[in-house]
From TrEMBL:
This is Phosphopantetheine adenylyltransferase. Reversibly transfers an adenylyl group from ATP to 4'-phosphopantetheine, yielding dephospho-CoA (dPCoA) and pyrophosphate. Pfam families: CTP_transf_like. Substrate binds at S10, K42, L74, R88. NCBIfam families: coaD_prev_kdtB, cyt_tran_rel. ATP binds at S10, F11, H18, G89, L90, R91, E99, Y124, S125, F126, L127, S128, S129, S130. HAMAP family: PPAT_bact. Signal peptide: none annotated. It is found in: Cytoplasm. GO terms for biological process: coenzyme A biosynthetic process. PANTHER family: PHOSPHOPANTETHEINE ADENYLYLTRANSFERASE. GO terms for molecular function: ATP binding; pantetheine-phosphate adenylyltransferase activity. It is an enzyme of class 2 (transferase).
Length: 160
């Protein structure tokens, strides 16, 4: 397919589910911008800079991935980097309604940018950053849910 795509999220923290979507998107598009959006309605565990560093570490072996942060409208960021697509991951049917609203609004704001949904692998369909943080908080096993760098960062956060 080619072109530039943006893969947005809060990534607090990045999980194997996110990595799966990014890797698969990177096979389809020439360049993927993984963008940490600073969502004012969320209370993140990791700072934006910490999340950027974790994502860079986890995606360093995917040559066509760029990692950045952005405040504002996603379609504005996409336009600035000349992206023609937004990649969104879907875990379950319950994600679809929210994603459809966001996609519809993005289309109103800029109808030249298409949204592509990628269904997560079944092994990650239950996985969310919130669940990972909850398990990590109580010292549960998360090695199958997040890359080693992220596991270490979570352990450090909850030891403090």
């Amino acid at each position: 397919m080619g072109g530039i795509a943006v893969c947005p999220g809060s990534f607090d923290p990045i999980t194997y589910g996110h990595v799966d979507i990014i890797r698969r998107g990177a096979k389809v598009f020439d360049q993927i911008h993984v963008v940490v959006l600073n969502n004012s309605s969320k209370n993140p565990l990791f700072t934006v800079d910490e999340r950027l560093e974790l994502i860079k570490d986890v995606t360093k072996e995917i040559p066509n991935v760029t990692v950045a942060s952005f405040q504002g409208l996603l379609v504005d960021y996409a336009s600035n980097v000349k992206a023609s697509a937004i990649i969104r991951g879907l875990r379950a049917v319950s994600d679809f309604e929210y994603e459809m609203q966001i996609t519809s609004m993005n289309r109103v704001l800029n109808d030249t940018i298409e949204t592509f949904f990628i269904m997560t692998n079944n092994q990650y369909s239950f996985l969310s950053s919130s669940i990972v943080k909850e398990v990590a908080k109580y010292n549960g096993k998360i090695s199958e849910l997040v890359p080693p760098t992220v596991e270490k960062a979570l352990k450090n956060k909850f030891q403090d």
